Amino acid sequence: MAAVLEPKSCRPGSRRLDQAAICLSAACLVHCLGVPLLLVLAPWMTLGVLGEEWFHLGLVAFVVPLSLLAFHLGFRQHGQRAMMLPGLAGVTLVALAAGLEVGHLVGHTVSAALTSVGGILLIVGHWLNLRGRSGFRSK
Asked: Are the beta carbons of 66 and 20 closer than 8 angstroms?
């Protein structure tokens, strides 16, 4: 049985927030998984800007507010608290990982693992939020 997606009324700008946040979360996940792979495959290469602490903090500075705004606007529209749990857990893990790494309380491997799990939770949370806001349903 094929599912047909029928969007209800949803402000275009608010849908774009979730879509942008999904893309940004996916980019963070690719970055977190890709950098350690580059370290293993090409230890002679410098990572340049991708390995810099300010780059990670810059990503967090975009991910956290964008995600919180998208989740807030989505909740106001769909009102379903359960849809918010994965996303808020993801925001928490990403922010926690950045704080722990900046404070030199954990190494890059632990930080990358926390950020990767947080990124996956963010993607799931934004997808659920977008789905709830758009009123997707199967026929």
From this structure: yes
Half-sphere exposure of 110 (CA within 13 A, CB side): 11
Please say whether the beta carbons of 75 and 134 come within 8 A: no
Q: Residue ranges per domain, the chain?
A: 13-40+51-134
Give the HSE-up count for residue 87: Cα atoms under 13 Å, Cβ half-sphere: 27
The pTM score is 0.65
Taken as a whole, the chain contains a residue count of 139
User: pLDDT tens-digit profile of 33-92?
Assistant: 666 666 555 444 445 565 667 777 888 898 899 889 888 888 888 888 888 899 999 999
**Residue 99, Ramachandran bin (φ over 0: left; ψ between -120 and 50: alpha; else beta):** alpha
Task: Give Cβ neighbours of residue 124 (< 8 Å, ≥ 6 apart).
Answer: 86, 87, 90
DSSP secondary structure letter of residue 1? -
Closest CA to 123 of 81, 89, 99: 89
